[in-house]
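FAQ

Q: What does a record look like?
A: Structure on top, sequence underneath. For example:
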């Protein structure tokens, strides 16, 4: 297929992975549901503040412990039985040759 017929021609190659949140994050999401928060995963990744400040609260997650644990599971420095440590499975990724950015999108199934 040439570039003219490929709607994704010119875009960087993307590899997609799907996974469940780690156990600690799932617990926070369930707690948020009991408080009436429907989009718990969005809340999980919500910053402490959305306004820039000298204390840099806009650079911190409300649930920083859970978010960092999830990212550690993804990169292979921690484990969780329901999450694939996909960034730890390839030498090219480990050497920074393949994965330079991560885009996270979520689908929650009940």
């Amino acid at each position: 297929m040439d570039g003219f017929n490929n709607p994704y021609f010119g875009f960087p190659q993307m590899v997609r992975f799907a996974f469940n949140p780690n156990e600690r994050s799932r617990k926070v999401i369930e707690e948020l549901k009991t408080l009436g928060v429907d989009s718990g995963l969005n809340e999980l990744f919500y910053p402490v503040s959305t306004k820039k400040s000298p204390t840099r609260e806009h650079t911190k997650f409300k649930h920083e412990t859970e978010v960092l644990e999830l990212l550690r599971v993804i990169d292979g420095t921690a484990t969780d039985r329901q999450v694939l440590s996909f960034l730890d499975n390839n030498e090219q990724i480990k050497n920074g040759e393949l994965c330079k950015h991560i885009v996270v999108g979520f689908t929650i199934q009940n």
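Q: Is there anything notable about this one?
A: Residues 69 and 78 are 7 Å apart (CA to CA).
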